């Protein structure tokens, strides 16, 4: 999924914003959940993006770890960008290795899409609004007002992560997929 999103996302207007066919999504999700091999290359990239967001939402405790939720939420309250980046890097060290590897690939894809935002209309802000709720959620449910405020904060954090991903994850993030 990430490889397809890396290839097609940068040239796809509204990637992660538009959803594909609900019927196709449901059928493919059932196949994937049952362990059936699926060739997504022949499907709409919007269905693939929807499947990927669904996959992220189903990671127990979220990829950024709901246990660290308060710490993630306070990152942007810290001093300058350098301090924020250092704080993010320290939080990443507390995540399981599999989460960190997946995050690097996710932000490699998001960076590639954002670099062509003139073409696809998905700048860091737009990407963050679409993907942030799939990356982190509070450990306990709350009122709609608190949830709305939380989504704004996590979106701002993800926007910062996208805009600074090379400094956070390293410059090699731009070549994780090699020459596809």
UniProtKB/TrEMBL annotation:
SMART domains: RhoGAP (SM00324). Residues 1-169 form the Rho-GAP domain. The gene is Arhgap20_0. GO terms for molecular function: GTPase activator activity. Coiled coil: none annotated. Gene3D superfamilies: Rho GTPase activation protein. This is RHG20 protein. One of its GO terms (biological process) is regulation of Rho protein signal transduction. CDD domains: RhoGAP_ARHGAP20. Keywords: GTPase activation, Phosphoprotein. It holds the Pfam family RhoGAP.
